[in-house]
């Protein structure tokens, strides 16, 4: 490499005459102000949560409609519904939906998963009424025009093909089957064959049957007067009505621990490690302690797992351990992608760190660091309108509200080091874990057989 | 948008400092932008700027390995860094009680990073895993940011892969790192930005206290990366072992974002007219009317608009079914550009683009970390962070005639076309 004429050596660069300096202490933390909030249920059964957060002249909208279905073809119909619901109403065609939104700097987007239909959007706050009008128009009058459904069905098949070529999607689908068999919770992406058979009439029928306000929740955050925003929602959505309630997914069976499953992906140069174990919901009294135990294990960068398999061994670019909240409970998921030759060693170290959490409990400084990260993370992630709206929506999905957000720092402060150790022993018992590995079995089988606890394809 | 009052000063060692107070939430962000990106790395050392970014997290005189991460996260914050064509940024966002600590962490690695053989080898492994994750083991990896530049550009600086070849990464030495740091990471080659819940006088004092004794070093003369626009249409194919559908990327040259900012912004508007939303021209034509493509997108910059100096790239990308010949997509694109060149966008189209742009800026900058990085990048690339607040007005001033002229200049005889040949099939 062409160096400048003269430069210092690395050793000279890393040293000053003054020597190392002390880390400054933390200052006094100012509390976040309590925003004006309205949390109410409209006569049609829709829960509306509106929060005044005036930082920028925008309004953020989140709508969650429980959208579970038992039939094996439900996900194909639901997926096509979500991709076509904004393509036509009695009053607007697809282009008109977009142009009306665009004029007020607005956007709306619908996505569906096995639990819910989620509609997210935003607009300049002056255009809030237009945002509500377009959304109400879609919810009460989506027509699913034949030609739009036909075209979106073609595109959906193509997009599913692309999605299923992604290693993370392959791994996720394998993990879901391994954990839950054929449970509806596993149907995150329909098969191309099922999509091809869905008709416009099927989608219209599903909309009439399942896009319901009762049991659904809407969050609004922005430069709004919360009560006036709720009144505006009540007026705009008064025609959205049904006596029936939106369908929740029933509680999931607990994930049993057991052998990992190796899934063959020929020619892969990197493998996906995906492990899982039972966790607890946000409302469980043990949640704060388990949250901290999980952070210490692999829930943030300064965790045992990341410091081991990335910063010490260089086996992976990133490793994460995080809760997935499910109907009636939760699981914890561990993700790491690693070169084929590093896969068995990375699994060995990950198993070691799981067992070490159980038998070498987190130290006081590990717990304090995780605690400050958890408390600070709540503050920084909810400092923006969009961040707060998404957090409140995810809480509302569990029947919780802003009070949970307000009280959680206190819960985290009260957790003792002993309680974290107890939680760690419970969560990180190795026999409670299971998972999948996706990679080139021709290269992985021999070392994984040697390690044991892995079922080969 | 209500632009915050910006305060700026320069330390005697040359460090430019920008303060953007906003007391609405008790959070703070600190970023340092160094004026070196992957365009500056020498031949034989592709990926070096990014590798070096990783090494800046590996400890400094007062901080053991891992200490940086632990101090940021253990103070309730989060951190990251990223390497761009013309700059490299480092940042933290934290509860405001940690302001001085964040300044200390950035100052310590600006003054005396600890670069060791062991950490270098460790981070070469980590970066190789990053490249496997984002490029080698997935469909459309590096599309189009790695694949398109070698078709559009001729010089090494503009054409090469900023993630780097494995052989180059493996050959990087501690000596290379020392030379790179001494050359490019001088305080006079950087911008420090502090935004959020801060008091200007107190923060000014803290900045002096922590950065004041970082020794001044010579600042390198910034080279020009200019090269002439392509003569003719340059074409190339890339075989993607994982992709299931063909794709194409079309690259055009953009006006100089620094010296011809309004002309550049005209292209930002053009990109939105072409592909932003269901009513945009390419969505209507390619996705719906002709049903040629699965997805189409147009945009300025290989990563985002206003993220680089000259030369910069206007891209159009599409993914489409195997039954569609790439030239049909190109022909439809050319016809739409020609139509815009003839009639220009109508007034309502322009008004919609402006409204969405203003809204998008509000949303982006409501995130403190995005706002901080935007201020720092604008201060570094344009010398004026205030531009952020002026963008809505300048976007709104773009006329139909401007957009028509820009569309007219996007000729097939001066562009790059990269075709992705899928070999993924069903896995």
Automatic annotation (TrEMBL), chain A:
Region listing for Disordered, in residue ranges: 1-32
UniProt cross-references to InterPro entries, sorted A to Z: Metalloenz_LuxS/M16, MPP/UQCRC_Complex, Pept_M16_N, Peptidase_M16_C
SUPFAM superfamilies (alphabetical): LuxS/MPP-like metallohydrolase
Peptidase M16 C-terminal domain span: 198-372
Residues covered by the Peptidase M16 N-terminal domain: 78-187
Protein name: Zn-dependent peptidase
Species annotation: Streptoalloteichus tenebrarius (strain ATCC 17920 / DSM 40477 / JCM 4838 / CBS 697.72 / NBRC 16177 / NCIMB 11028 / NRRL B-12390 / A12253. 1 / ISP 5477) (Streptomyces tenebrarius)
UniProtKB/TrEMBL annotation, chain B:
Matches recorded under Pfam families: Peptidase_M16, Peptidase_M16_C
Protein name: Zn-dependent peptidase
Domain Peptidase M16 C-terminal, first and last residues per copy: 173-353
Keywords linked to the UniProt accession: Hydrolase, Metalloprotease, Protease, Zinc
Keyword Nucleotide-binding appears in the UniProt entry: no
Stored PANTHER family: NARDILYSIN (PTHR43690), PROTEIN YHJJ (PTHR43690:SF17)
Protein's organism: Streptoalloteichus tenebrarius (strain ATCC 17920 / DSM 40477 / JCM 4838 / CBS 697.72 / NBRC 16177 / NCIMB 11028 / NRRL B-12390 / A12253. 1 / ISP 5477) (Streptomyces tenebrarius)
InterPro entries noted in UniProt: Metalloenz_LuxS/M16, Pept_M16_N, Peptidase_M16, Peptidase_M16_C
Entries under SUPFAM superfamilies matching the protein: LuxS/MPP-like metallohydrolase
């Amino acid at each position: 490499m062409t160096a400048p004429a003269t430069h210092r050596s690395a050793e000279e660069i890393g040293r000053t005459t003054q020597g190392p300096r002390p880390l400054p202490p933390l200052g006094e933390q100012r509390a976040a102000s309590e925003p004006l909030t309205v949390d109410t249920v409209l006569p049609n059964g829709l829960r509306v949560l509106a929060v005044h957060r005036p930082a920028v002249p925008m309004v953020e909208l989140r709508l969650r409609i429980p959208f579970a279905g038992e039939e094996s073809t439900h996900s194909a119909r639901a997926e096509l519904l979500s991709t076509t619901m904004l393509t036509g109403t009695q009053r607007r065609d697809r282009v008109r939906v977009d142009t009306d939104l665009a004029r007020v700097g607005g956007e709306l987007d619908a996505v569906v998963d096995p639990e819910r239909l989620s509609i997210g959007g935003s607009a300049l706050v002056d255009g809030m009424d237009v945002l509500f009008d377009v959304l109400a128009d879609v919810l009460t009058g989506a027509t699913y025009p034949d030609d739009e459904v036909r075209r979106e069905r073609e595109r959906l098949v193509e997009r599913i093909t692309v999605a299923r070529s992604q290693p993370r999607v392959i791994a996720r689908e394998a993990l879901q089957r391994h954990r839950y068999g054929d449970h509806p919770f596993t149907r995150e992406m329909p098969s191309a064959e099922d999509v091809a058979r869905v008709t416009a009439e099927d989608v219209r029928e599903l909309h009439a049957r399942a896009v319901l306000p009762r049991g659904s929740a809407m969050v609004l955050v922005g430069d709004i007067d919360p009560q006036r925003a709720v009144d505006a929602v009540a007026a705009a959505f008064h025609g959205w009505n049904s006596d029936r309630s939106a369908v929740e997914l029933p509680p999931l069976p607990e994930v049993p621990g057991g052998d990992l499953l190796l899934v063959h992906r020929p020619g892969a140069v990197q493998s996906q490690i995906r492990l899982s174990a039972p966790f607890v919901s946000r409302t469980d009294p043990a949640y704060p302690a388990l949250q901290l135990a999980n952070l210490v294990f692999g829930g943030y960068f300064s965790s045992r797992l990341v410091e081991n398999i990335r910063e010490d061994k260089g086996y992976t670019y990133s490793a994460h351990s995080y809760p997935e909240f499910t109907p009636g409970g939760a699981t914890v998921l561990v993700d790491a992608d690693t070169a084929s030759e590093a896969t068995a060693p990375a699994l060995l170290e990950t198993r070691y760190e799981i067992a070490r959490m159980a038998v070498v409990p987190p130290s006081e400084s590990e717990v304090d660091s995780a605690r400050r990260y958890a408390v600070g993370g709540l503050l920084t992630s909810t400092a923006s309108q969009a961040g707060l709206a998404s957090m409140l929506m995810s809480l509302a999905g569990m029947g919780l509200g802003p009070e949970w957000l307000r009280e959680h720092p206190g819960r985290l402060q009260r957790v003792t080091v002993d309680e974290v150790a107890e939680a760690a022993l419970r969560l990180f018992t190795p026999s409670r874990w299971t998972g999948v590995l996706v990679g080139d079995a021709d290269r992985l089988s021999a070392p994984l057989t040697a390690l044991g606890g892995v079922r080969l394809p | 948008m209500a632009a915050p009052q910006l305060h700026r000063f320069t330390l005697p060692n040359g460090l430019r400092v920008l303060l953007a107070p906003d007391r609405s939430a008790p959070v703070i962000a600190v970023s340092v932008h160094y004026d070196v990106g992957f365009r500056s790395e020498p031949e034989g050392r592709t990926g070096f700027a990014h590798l070096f970014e990783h090494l800046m997290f590996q400890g400094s005189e007062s901080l053991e390995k891992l200490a940086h991460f632990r101090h940021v996260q253990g103070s309730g914050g989060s951190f990251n860094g990223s390497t761009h064509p013309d700059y490299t940024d480092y940042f933290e966002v934290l509860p405001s009680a940690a302001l001085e600590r964040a300044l200390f962490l950035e100052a310590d690695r600006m003054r005396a990073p600890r670069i060791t053989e062991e950490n270098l080898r460790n981070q070469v492994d980590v970066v190789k895993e990053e490249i496997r994750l984002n490029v080698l083991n997935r469909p459309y990896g590096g599309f189009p940011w790695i694949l398109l530049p070698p078709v559009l550009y001729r010089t090494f600086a503009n054409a090469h892969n900023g993630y780097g070849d494995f052989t180059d990464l493996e050959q990087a030495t501690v000596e290379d790192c020392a030379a790179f740091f001494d050359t490019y990471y001088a305080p006079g080659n950087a911008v420090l930005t502090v935004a959020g819940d801060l008091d200007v006088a107190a923060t000014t004092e803290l900045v002096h206290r922590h950065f004041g004794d970082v020794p001044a070093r010579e600042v390198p003369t910034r080279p020009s990366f200019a090269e002439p626009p392509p003569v003719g249409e340059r074409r190339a194919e890339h075989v993607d072992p994982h992709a299931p559908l063909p794709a194409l990327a079309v690259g055009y040259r953009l006006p100089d974002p620094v010296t011809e900012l309004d002309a550049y912004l005209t292209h930002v508007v053009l990109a939105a007219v072409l592909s932003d939303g269901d009513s945009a021209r390419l969505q209507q034509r390619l996705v719906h009317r002709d049903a040629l493509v699965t997805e189409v997108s147009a945009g300025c910059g290989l990563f985002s608009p206003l993220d680089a100096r000259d030369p910069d790239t206007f891209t159009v990308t599409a993914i489409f079914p195997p039954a569609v010949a790439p030239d049909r997509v190109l022909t439809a694109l050319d016809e739409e550009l020609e139509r815009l060149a003839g009639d220009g966008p109508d007034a309502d189209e322009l008004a919609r683009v402006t409204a969405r742009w203003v809204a998008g800026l509000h949303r982006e900058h409501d995130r403190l970390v995005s706002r901080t990085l935007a201020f720092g990048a604008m201060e570094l690339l344009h010398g004026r962070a205030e531009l952020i607040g002026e963008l809505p007005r300048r976007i709104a001033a773009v006329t139909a005639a401007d957009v028509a002229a820009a569309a007219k200049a996007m000729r097939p005889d001066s562009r790059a076309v990269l075709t992705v040949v899928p070999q993924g099939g069903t896995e």
